[in-house]
Amino acid sequence: MFRLSELYNIYSKYINFRFIYILEAHAQDEWPICSSRWSPTEMPIKYNQTRTIEQRLVVAKDFIRDFNFPIPTVIDKPEENLFEKLYAPWPVRIYIIDKDYRLTYIAEPSETMLELNELIEHLQSIIQLNK
Asked: With the CA atoms of 51, 52, 57 and 58 taken in that order, what torsion angle do they form, in degrees rounded to the nearest 10?
């Protein structure tokens, strides 16, 4: 998450960022992997899968607080999970939608890692186009 926060700090003056919080990846009542996500306190984070908007808001707020996450965050409504259904963002995806609402970039992980160099090049090209 640190690298995303760093990119946000660099590019947010040029690009409108949004982080979309979807399904809990390793919910303890569905697919528990206690070492999958660690907080800055080095304690495992454990949540059940969220089923209401109130539950998802609590988890998203905890995430933002615990990771000091600066990117404006919205949630996918758990009753519909529409973003998750339309874009299949799990495990991690980064999408760039241009000012005309066209999808211009999808970053996909390779072997569970998200390579950010290609994303940075794309962000740079957007800035160059808008100068």
From this structure: -70
What distance in Å separates the CA atoms of residue 131 and residue 127, rounded to the nearest whole number? 6
Kind of pairing, strands 103-107 and 19-21?
unpaired
The closest alpha carbon to 22, from 60, 88, 76, belongs to: 76
**Cβ contacts of residue 32 below 8 Å, gap of 6+?**
26, 46
Taking only the tens place, the pLDDT of each residue in 55-101 is 999 999 988 988 889 999 999 999 999 988 888 877 678 888 888 88
**pLDDT one-digit tens code per residue, 30-53:** 776 665 455 666 767 678 889 999
User: 42 by DSSP, 3-state: which?
Assistant: coil
Backbone φ/ψ region at 101: left (φ over 0), alpha (ψ -120 to 50), beta: left
